[in-house]
Amino acid sequence: MLNVNVSFTVVYHDFQIHALVFGIFASFVAPFGGLLASAVKRVSQVKDFGNTLGEHGGVSDRTDCHLLMGVFTRLYYMAIISNCAK
User: Fold this and answer.
1) What is the C-alpha to C-alpha distance for residues 49 and 34, in angstroms, rounded to an integer?
2) pLDDT tens digit sequence for 27-49
3) Coiled-coil segments, which residues (predicted)?
4) Which of 23, 26, 48, 49 could form a disulfide with 60 if both were Cys (CB 3.0 to 4.6 A apart)?
């Protein structure tokens, strides 16, 4: 019979927790920014928000997910990170 007693400690920093939150949000929620933009275009009966990129629409057609991520980043910073730093 083998009896092994192993113990270890996990050390993490605040930065790693914040990076995990951003990673989870970017993976699961930010893509819905594209769906939100699609819904707005569908209601407005517009194919693309612009024609800067030719067949691919305008710049905002490519950055709609980034817009949602930017809003989340700002709110997260104001609510969580700035309060932790004090």
Assistant:
1) 12
2) 888 777 777 777 777 787 766 65
3) none
4) 49
